[in-house]
Amino acid sequence: MDYRKSNAPTNTVTRDMMSLSEETGNVYETVRIIGKRANQISVEMKQDLDKKLQEFASYNDNLEEVFENREQIEISRYYEKLPKPTLIAAQEFTEGKLYYRNPNKDKDNF
Questions:
Q1: How many CA atoms lie within 13 A of 79 on its CB side?
Q2: Confidence check: pLDDT of 39 > 90
Q3: SS3 95
Q4: b/e per residue, 67-76, with b = 16+ CB within 10 A?
Q5: Which is nearest to 90 in space by CA: 26, 2, 12?
Q6: Residue 68's pLDDT is what?
Q7: CA geometry: angle 81, 84, 89, nearest 5 deg
Q8: Count of CB atoms situated within 10 Å of the CB of 3
């Protein structure tokens, strides 16, 4: 999923954890699923940001040539305004867009 096109809120949202965990039946399992997805999104966002900022990297050893790069600042501001990975993951979970499985439960079914 493209996190830039997510309809997740950009500010903190209070959620009813009991209604959120109805799908899994366990609040802690729901938090674990959302947390793991949030980590995946965070890594993806970090790699994307690093790749874009790498274009502006200066490899000069001269400390006197430090200057302000407008494009780099705009890219950083754009990423700061995006919803946080936890909010995106929670939105994906509530919309049913996440696939998850518990190997322990799968083993018990065989």
A1: 17
A2: yes
A3: coil
A4: eeeeeeeebe
A5: 12
A6: 62
A7: 140
A8: 17
How many residues appear in the chain? 110
Contacting residues for 82 by C-beta, under 8 A, at least 6 apart: 3, 4, 10, 45
Read off the amino acid at residue 22: E
- Token reading at 83: 């919803």
**Does residue 101 have a pLDDT over 70?**
yes
- Convert the pLDDT of each residue in 40-98 to its tens digit: 999 999 999 888 888 876 666 555 545 567 788 888 888 888 899 999 999 899 988 88
- Decide: 56 and 69 in contact? Cβ < 8 Å: yes
Per-residue tokens: 15: 């959620």
**Angle 27-54/70-81 helices, nearest 10 degrees?**
170
Check pLDDT > 90 for residue 3.
Answer: no
